[in-house]
Amino acid sequence: MTQEVSAQLSEEEQWRAAEKERWNAYLWEPGSCLRNKLDIKNPIELRFTEYALRANRQGEIDRGEADIPRTYDKAHIQAIHRHLLQDVYDWAGEFRNVQIQKQGNEFVPPGRLDAWTDKVSAKVQDKDWSTMSREEFVQSISEVYAYQNLTHPFREGNGAAAKVFAQHVSEMSPYRLDFDKVERDEWNAAADASYPKDLEKSTDPDPRALYAVFDKMTVERGAVVRADPELAAALQLQSSTYAGADAQHTTGRGERPDTHGVDRVAEQETERED
């Protein structure tokens, strides 16, 4: 074994140890239930309790009882997640520091979450939602959701937060979203199909896979919430073009060194269905 290969393996081993430590910090003990404010140690009990508490908090958002500024950026999605899961997790609203996956599909590495959240924000800010036709809305909201779903910035609760975010975006349009019009299996299949087919060639998702489900969910609304033009202009200045998660390989916080032929960390478990 050459000295270069030996150094690479050593770096990989260091990454594994650090990632394992970060992963276990979310749990009561290795391989067990997520740490939570309710002192629940059974993952099934936690899942149902979390759902009930989250549903109550989502009702507050839906009724306009939660103060969540419509900035369509990192602060916006964090405020949604924090409100939804404030009763369950101390880290509600905080971006994850571990790599997660679902059904074998890995999401954006933790070190690139801010850049991808900016990318989602740009997908919102670059459009005039108030004048969209129904077809334009379906395609545009599918694109926003596809990028948000691929980002998956939280350790848990991404699906619920992303749906509220999409609903907030729809407030600027002549349409709203009725998620009850689509069955769970159909929704999950569409989201899975939107995942990039070849990460070696492109990390961008395929929003077209979501067109059919968003077409079912799109309902005409009466009043349209107009975006604050000054706020939109300020956010536009802050946003920057990002080449994608595969544009370069770095070893920033939570990212894996660019080594090949080494098995991935066993603790990168599948995220729970939202």
Description:
The protein is mostly helical and 274 residues long. It folds into 2 domains: 1-32; 39-238, Orthogonal Bundle (Fic-like fold). The protein is built from 9 helices and 4 strands. Helix 3 crosses helix 6 and helix 5 runs antiparallel to helix 6.
CATH class of the largest domain: Mainly Alpha
What sequence of helices (H) and strands (E) makes up the elements? Answer: HHHEEHHHEHHEH
Cα-atom Rg, whole angstroms? 19 Å
Strand order of the largest sheet: 1-2
Major pleated sheet:
2 strands, antiparallel
Low-confidence stretches: 223-271
Domains counted in the coordinates: how many?
2
The tally of helices reads 9
Count of DSSP strands: 4
How much is the average pLDDT? 83
What is the global morphology? globular
- Cα(first) to Cα(last) distance is 45 Å
Percent helix, as a range, is: 40-55%
Query: What fraction of residues sit in β-strands?
Result: under 5%
CATH topology of the largest domain: Fic-like fold
Q: From the 3D coordinates, which CATH architecture of the largest domain would you assign?
A: Orthogonal Bundle
Q: Could you name the CATH homologous superfamily of the largest domain?
A: Fido-like domain
